[in-house]
Amino acid sequence: MKVFRSWRAAVTFLFATFAAFPTFSFDFSQLENSVVEHTLKNGLKIIILERHDAPVVSFDTYANVGSVDDPKGYSGLAHMFEHMAFKGTTTLGTKNYQKEKGLIAVEDSIFMELRDERTKGMFVDSAKVKKLEKDYEAAREASYQLVEPNAFGQTVTREGAVGLNAGTATDYTSYFYSLPSNKVELWMALESERFLNPVLREMYKERDVVAEERRMRIESNPIGRLIEQYIGLAFSAHPYGVIGIGHMSDIQYYSRKEAKAFFEKYYGPSNLTIAIVGDVNANDIFKMAEKYFGRIPYRPAPPRIATIEPPQLGERRMELEDPSQPILVAGWHIPELTHPDRPAIDALFDYLVGGRTSVLYKKMVKDKKMVAQIAGLPGFPGDKYPTTALVYAIPAPKISNYDCEKEIYVEIDKLQKELVPAEKLEEIKARAKADFIRSLVSNSGLAGSLTSYETYWGDWHQMFRQLDRINAVTPEDIQRVAKQYFTKNNRTVVLMNTIQS
């Protein structure tokens, strides 16, 4: 019997074993039983997995809020607040908070007056706008003089932090990094403080950064422009139809007032989940968490979005003319991540466009040389609510979007009429299991997986049921979902056709 000195070694061994025996069934019960959890009185859940093979620990703070939750008229606010969460607190990031607080109030007052004047349309007073813009710039610069830039990042980096980052997705926002295990209390103090006493300093400066990010990712990027049109066309009711970074007019409109309201609604402790994986003692962590995170007052978790995207009654189609190269996106409405049909849909997409061994890659890239690139993604733009599965392709020179589109539909039609060969399904399952196991190798990967499963499924234990769901898929399941979801009436297509500039 092989004895493992660390969980890293154990998982690595499992991965190697799995690669050799694709149908092998794994028992993750020992790993699952090593995970412990504790919920504070204010509703904050903390999940811990002790791994003592190295004196490091990874932290993942997972907020159950993403761009799908942006208030109407303030798209991009979830992403904007993620930027603000690194700006410090009443004690970190300022040279003199009391003085800074007063200057921030002046800055806000002038901006609100300027915003009101700008939105008067034909009745706007241009002379007043010009004066207010000058006063606004002066107020901004005055408040910025009291800022200690990047104080949060510099503090944790100085203490050995690696991987300091955050990300705003459609469904969630995650804050993560790793530290030496003797710096856990530092993390506790800083992380709890930025969700207890955040100061949204440099708000308008950072808003300009976000606006520039939109210009770069969407307005100056052909694929970005295409995707924004695709989701807007695919979703007529659900907020998945708004691009995560937000509309430019919204980015330039919102103020600290809206950002603070967003924070109060979505960043209460009952809407946060924390995973800590590494060289820690769980009992010590729970006591420390009571001391630091227990200070945050209880706020009820916000309700899920009630809007349901109505069934699509016919194909939705848009053709754009652009000086870029041709690009094709075709997508179909599918259920959310936790729906019983999703493992079969995911398997279908792996068979269809899952890398170099997929049907469409072999046919359209290798054999017919019709496309320079083809790929797909089930679960776009999000996965918490019913979503879409999309295929995108970039045609080769002298090949049209229409030619590529026809070839994609030919293969989908085959999936509706013919069963996927059993040996191909075993390969698909092998890749899915390998991807899953790979995600468990690192502390940071485990922390992210634990918080994700806890939030999407309401129970982190579901992470350890994933292999069962993969194993249960049959060729008949794939054929059934192909017939049910991948139909013309359920399809949204956006083509970007080249024109001469």
Structural write-up:
With 501 residues, this protein is α+β, with helices and mostly antiparallel strands. The chain has 2 domains: 58-94 and 147-295, Cytochrome Bc1 Complex, Chain A, domain 1 (2-Layer Sandwich), CATH 3.30.830; 316-498, 2-Layer Sandwich (Cytochrome Bc1 Complex, Chain A, domain 1), CATH 3.30.830. The chain has helices at residues 7-20, 29-33, 77-84, 97-118, 126-144, 151-158, 184-196, 203-219, 222-234, 248-251, 256-266, 282-292, 342-353, 359-367, 401-417, 422-438, 443-457, 466-471, 475-485; strands at residues 35-39, 45-50, 56-63, 162-168, 173-180, 272-278, 316-322, 327-334, 371-380, 387-395, 491-498. It has a 6-stranded mixed β-sheet, with helices on both faces. Strands 7-11-8-10-9 form a 5-stranded mixed β-sheet, with helices on both faces. Helix 1 runs antiparallel to helix 16, helix 4 (97-118) packs antiparallel against helix 5 (126-144) and helix 7 packs parallel to helix 12. The chain is globular. Residues 1-25 have low confidence and may be disordered.
